[in-house]
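Hi R.,

Here's the chain you asked about this morning:
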Amino acid sequence: MDIIKKFGDMVGEESIRDPEKARKLLLTGYRLQEKRLQLFPDRKLPASGQYVARVVMQNIIKALAKPDDTALVSIFVPGELLTAAGITPYSVEAMSCFIAGTRCEQAFLAQTESEGFPETMCSYHRVFLGASMTGLVPKPKCTIYTNLACDGNMMTFPYLKQKYQIPGFYIDVPYEKNQDSIRYVADQLREMKKFLEDVGGKKISEQSVQRAVANSNEAASYYSRQLALRKDHDPVTSLTNELYAIFMCHLLAGSEESLKYTKMLLEDVKKAPKGEGLHILWMHMMPFLQEPVKAVFNYSQNVYISACDFVADGFQRMQASDPYEALAEKMVNCIYNGSVKQRIRHAQELANLTEADGGILFAHWGCKGTIGASSLIKNSLENAGLPTMVLDGDGCNPANSSDGQVSTRLQAYLEMLSEGKEGKRS
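And the predicted structure, written out as tokens:
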């Protein structure tokens, strides 16, 4: 019997009849999982992987259990300001990942379809919208979102702001990467601090903002140091574990937990031996539910994810001395903003640094920016000497792609990389 599937079906069905009861059921399951992670951590993962799993689980539980202390955010909202304000980030993408991981996402996808939301819209957003329509996910204190990277934000957040009748804040990030753009975004972030003070009813000290930015920079330094070691060290990982790193560089950026995670990760990488398998540069989100992808990467001693561009960009080091300009710099210079050339250049740098054998670009369903740029990214990286695969799929709804097709394409690509690596050795 698939216990998780049975539990997910119960939550999905109950959310239609009694959303409060369904939420309590979901919370009970998550609290039991958090306790299990504490008492019986995944020993196949290094210490940093065990730690980050607990931290992320605790964040999701807080968001569901204490919504009055939360801000509903998109993934690229600067977590450092939320950390300084003591507000729990309640992320559309993160919550949808957990709902999908609980195997109850289909009920909420059906709900958004019945309400007329397009199937071509990002599944992370559709799952969350469906969960909010049924009442499974609670009303947050406020919403904060940005136009950065995902056009789904421009539909989801205005809808939820109106539905919940709550205050909202929008951060406009210009396409151009220059000082004018940084100053423009920095001014908005100063206003965001005032917004959080008004919503939360308490002052946010400048010292707490500076400390959060300093923590974020220190975490970036640790992350960069472990990346530089990856060509000679191969820690065991899983797709879910890699996905959790996105929480730490965005939603929980600036927190003591994020800083501790990067310190632990550096130590784990130092202790990991060099494997004989393939080294992969992963680009974009992780399809952590897709069975054939899990079969290849989870706990593998043959195929290693040496770097993920999404995470490496999130842990970028900021240069400006003013904390708001530093955070603005991070947003404006994000690889998902502006020309695709920066994504290509960043991928090349990561591949060279980690001596990757190949790259996989995950073209997530509904992510128009990545799908539209996928051919250019693939061709550019291959012209630079990095064999690259565009893997079509859905990071939140595995039913949206064929396991058989994914497995066939992935295995063929890895065989090609193995043959190429053998050819270089001989």
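The mean pLDDT is 94.

Let me know if you need anything else.
M.
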